[in-house]
Write a structure and sequence with these properties.
single chain, 3-stranded antiparallel sheet, 41% helix
Length: 348
């Protein structure tokens, strides 16, 4: 029903407007008594076979929602009711910021993709902290991560301060933190992915973590546009700093092999590409990361997971968990259920 009726109607509107409508609907569901319980009953798949012990936490399934949808921690409970075992809120920056000028989100329907240049639009760390701390209806088994970044106006030299501030404010209210230095939509952000710049950011985050009694995991989100040499250099720095795991991958600036016309792509302009065109590269990066890291270091696979087959392939490539974003947009609210059922079927 979603793919054949609801999605075509939704796709008549601009992507960011649809995002706003979906966010409003999910916030509303959180306020109506019984709605989350009903969604949970309809869409959640429960089985010991699906459970994962990772990063010191028990995930009820390997399927989560990537950062970018619930930027401000306003409806993560509803996402949990849709069958997702974990939700990553953000990207969160120290100060509120509007992001890049609109329009900044574009569908590539022929390719099953999205291009966005949102630019870390969010309401700031104080607002997100307030949302996470006041919400008493968070399902006890739902794991919530916080994806952190720097403000666009912050020079790269001062980026460690922004990441440390976000870490300190969110740390008591999330289960893990994801350091985002790989988004292509913030000017010069990806210059921070390696070397002394990355070491300074991770060092600042780890220093903040040491202030707290409880040790929570810190993960690094990497770009799919890194070469093998760059990836290994990034991993070397991250491992030296004490990183707990990796999220592979962020969006790509690559436009090769798309069905969408060159004229249309030129009209859209810059931005990070997600969805089906990213699948092969994201899978290859998970496989390469697993080869570099060995069997034990946690990897979350994200990027181009559009259906059950994609999710299973990413897990076979070496991911311990998977995250959806564009696949959720194209596949609808039952995506987590379909993937979890496919995992169960495979295990029988």
């Amino acid at each position: 029903m979603y793919r054949h009726i609801i999605r075509p109607l939704l796709f008549l509107l601009p992507p960011e407007r649809i995002h706003g409508l979906v966010a409003f609907a999910l916030r509303l569901l959180c306020k109506i008594p019984g709605c989350l319980w009903l969604l949970h009953r309809l869409l959640r798949v429960s089985s010991p076979v699906l459970e994962r012990e990772l990063l010191g936490m028990r995930f009820t399934s390997p399927v989560g929602l990537a950062a970018g949808l619930d930027k401000n921690a306003e409806f993560f409970e509803a996402i949990g009711a849709l069958g997702f075992a974990f939700v990553e809120v953000g990207t969160v920056t120290p100060k509120p910021q509007p992001g890049n000028p609109k329009p900044r989100s574009f569908r590539l329907v022929a390719d099953g993709g999205l291009i966005n240049r949102m630019g870390f639009n969010n309401k700031g760390v104080d607002y997100v902290k307030h949302r996470l701390s006041r919400n008493g209806r968070r399902p006890k088994n739902l794991i919530v991560g916080g994806n952190i970044g720097k403000n666009t106006a912050t020079p790269n030299a001062d980026a460690p301060h922004d990441y440390a501030l976000c870490c300190r404010e969110l740390y008591p209210h999330v289960d893990y933190l994801a350091v985002n230095v790989s988004c292509p939509n913030v000017s010069s952000l990806r210059d921070l992915q390696a070397g002394s710049e990355l070491a300074a950011i991770l060092g600042a985050v780890m220093a903040v973590r040491a202030e707290f009694e409880q040790r929570k995991p810190v993960l690094l989100k990497v770009s799919p546009d890194l070469s093998s040499e760059q990836l290994r250099s990034t991993v070397e720095v991250a491992e030296r700093c004490g990183i707990d795991g990796y999220i592979a991958t962020n969006t790509t600036t690559n436009r090769e092999g798309l069905r969408t016309s060159a004229e249309r792509l030129q009209a859209i302009g810059n931005g990070g590409l997600s969805g089906a065109p990213l699948a092969a590269r994201a899978t290859a990066m998970v496989r390469e990361l697993r080869s570099v890291l060995g069997p034990d270091r946690p990897i979350i696979g994200v990027g181009g997971i559009m259906n059950e087959h994609d999710a299973l392939e990413r897990l076979r490539a070496g991911a311990d968990l998977v995250q959806l974003y564009t696949g959720f947009v194209y596949g609808g609210p039952a995506m987590a259920r379909r993937i979890n059922r496919a995992i169960l079927k495979q295990r029988r």
